[in-house]
Design goal:
Helix 1 (2-18) packs across helix 2 (28-35). This protein has nine helices and no strands. Helix content is 72%, strand content 0%. The N and C termini lie far apart (40 Å). By secondary structure, the protein is an all-alpha fold.
């Protein structure tokens, strides 16, 4: 229990500091001071400042991702419905991230880009195995017709995270909707899904 408490104290400290300054201007010593622990203790839990940041991102968005993975594991639900659950998790997590990451008005464009890059890497790595398995099961059931489930899941998640994050290629709401509708159309035609099956993806 004590280890978990200190681990969370370190993450809380970094989160507090991020509300005041850029990650590049935050030292491990400052994190330790904010957490109320010795600097040496930081390295017992994390090998670097970057590792603390990655863990903070993981903790901040683990609820919608965990929920999505739990729901997606229910094989009694159609593959297409479970895919929609994954898409909704991306949307929910992205919305939460945008609210939190915009909290520090002093953050530079470079700083925000760094945070968003870490966030997108986390989302893709967390959800790719789940989405790949859903697609594979859909293929086995004869509902989905596609030869490369892992490649398809990665393509979908990259498009989703880039568009929903809306920092790498800033878009208007209408442009985002058009891109997501195009993705849905390609998915439905490419996998043999009935038209309208994945409309969840475009529902803002």
């Amino acid at each position: 229990m004590a280890n978990t408490v200190k681990h969370d104290q370190i993450l809380d400290a970094l989160q507090n500091l991020l509300a005041q300054k850029d990650i590049r201007n935050i030292s491990v010593s400052e994190i330790a001071q904010e957490a109320g622990i010795g600097k040496g203790s930081i390295y017992y839990y994390f090998p670097s400042k970057d590792a603390i940041l990655e863990s903070l991102i993981e903790r901040s968005y683990e609820i919608p991702l965990h929920t999505a993975k739990e729901l997606a594991s229910q094989s009694s639900v159609s593959a297409f419905t479970r895919m929609a659950m994954i898409f909704q998790a991306c949307r929910t997590s992205s919305s939460a991230f945008q609210i939190q990451s915009s909290g520090n008005d002093k953050s530079s464009i470079q700083e925000r880009s760094h945070l968003h890059e870490k966030y997108m890497q986390h989302i893709i790595s967390e959800l790719k195995p789940t989405l790949t398995e859903i697609i594979r099961q859909g293929i086995e059931a004869g509902d989905i017709h596609f030869d490369y489930p892992a490649a398809l899941s990665e393509i979908v998640l990259i498009v989703l995270t880039v568009k929903l994050d809306n920092t790498l290629v800033p878009s208007t709401r209408e442009e985002m909707e058009d891109t997501l509708r195009g993705l849905v159309s390609l998915l439905e035609k490419g996998t043999g899904a009935p038209e309208g099956t994945l409309n969840y993806l475009t529902a803002f």
